């Protein structure tokens, strides 16, 4: 599992924690939407501690309290949760909590008449939106993977290489090779409309040329599909050059197309219009 996958799963779990309705509401457990401009009031009661939970990816960096003698404030070892409780029955002060992501403002109010608050946690709309987007992306990815696995081998081959499912009987492998061995492809064949040349991985491609009806060499139109060079048209002969090295591929199969059909335009002779 990649780090991105782990992050998406964490976000999804975070969203589910707040998306599922509680079976029974408990006033001692509260959830508030985080607002950086709001002061959150915590009603305390002597001998009752309140747990303040922050976002799963948040770490407490600093806690400042106005009256540390009247209130006890203690983070957990991981610095992700804060425990707060009053030491005096009618103590009141403020508290600021700074994490590595946000700043929280609290008003701490203790009274014997207060209802006990056990847990206060926050919701973060931006994290919930990100979790929902991650969930939808994961669902789409799973659906695409399921469709890929359900596809037939022929459909998968066609998706990766339009020529992979061609009828073998229609292919011409009768191409004679000559010249410098290093320039020659490992495989050469045509389907009557194009020539397919495959070199070993990492091999530098030579110049691919054809000769027109006047005996002039020129470049040919071709495209590269995966590891295969697809030459436009089926010329009688293909010339491969690299520096002083030369090699040829000659079509010894069915009658070849003209060089012009293979994408070569004959260069103009001097003085021609």
Give the DSSP E fraction (strand runs of 2 or more residues): 35-45%
Q: Could you tell me the number of beta strands? A: 18
Query: How can the largest sheet be summarized?
Result: 5 strands, mixed
Helix content: 10-25%
Mean pLDDT: 83
The residue ranges in which pLDDT falls below 50 over 5 or more consecutive positions are 18-23, 256-260, 265-273
> The CATH topology of the largest domain, please?
Immunoglobulin-like
**Overall 3D shape:** rod-shaped
Helix segment tally = 3
Radius of gyration: 37 Å
Number of domains: 2
CA distance, first residue to last residue: 66 Å
Q: Architecture of the largest domain, CATH level 2?
A: Sandwich
Order of SSEs: HEEEEEEEEEHHEEEEEEEEE
Just give the CATH class of the largest domain. Answer: Mainly Beta
Q: Structural class from helices and strands?
A: alpha+beta
Biggest sheet strand order reads 1-9-3-6-5
Question: What's the multimeric state?
Answer: single chain
Pfam families: CagX
Keywords: Signal
Organism: Erythrobacter sanguineus
Family: Belongs to the TrbG/VirB9 family.
């Amino acid at each position: 599992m990649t780090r991105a996958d782990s992050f998406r799963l964490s976000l999804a779990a975070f969203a589910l924690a707040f998306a599922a309705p509680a079976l029974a509401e408990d006033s001692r457990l509260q959830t508030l939407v985080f607002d950086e401009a709001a002061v959150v009031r915590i009603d305390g009661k002597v001998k009752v501690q309140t747990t303040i939970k922050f976002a799963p990816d948040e770490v407490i960096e600093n806690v400042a309290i106005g009256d540390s003698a009247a209130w006890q404030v203690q983070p957990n070892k991981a610095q992700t949760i804060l425990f707060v409780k009053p030491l005096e029955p009618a103590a009141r002060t403020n508290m600021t909590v700074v994490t590595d992501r946000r700043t929280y403002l609290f008003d701490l109010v203790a009274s014997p008449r207060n209802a006990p608050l056990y847990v206060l946690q926050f919701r973060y709309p931006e994290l919930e939106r990100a979790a929902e987007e991650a969930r939808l992306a994961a669902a789409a990815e799973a659906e695409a993977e399921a469709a890929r696995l359900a596809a037939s081998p022929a459909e998968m081959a066609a998706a990766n290489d339009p020529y992979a499912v061609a009828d073998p009987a229609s292919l011409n492998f009768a191409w004679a090779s000559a010249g410098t061995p290093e320039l020659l492809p490992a495989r050469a064949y045509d389907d009557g409309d194009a020539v397919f040349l495959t070199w070993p991985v990492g091999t530098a491609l030579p110049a691919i040329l054809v000769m027109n009806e006047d005996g002039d060499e020129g470049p040919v139109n071709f495209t590269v599909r995966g590891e295969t060079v697809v030459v436009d048209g089926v010329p009688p002969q293909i010339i491969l050059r690299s520096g002083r090295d030369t090699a040829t591929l000659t079509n010894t199969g069915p009658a070849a197309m003209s060089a012009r059909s293979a994408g070569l335009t004959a260069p103009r002779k001097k003085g021609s219009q």
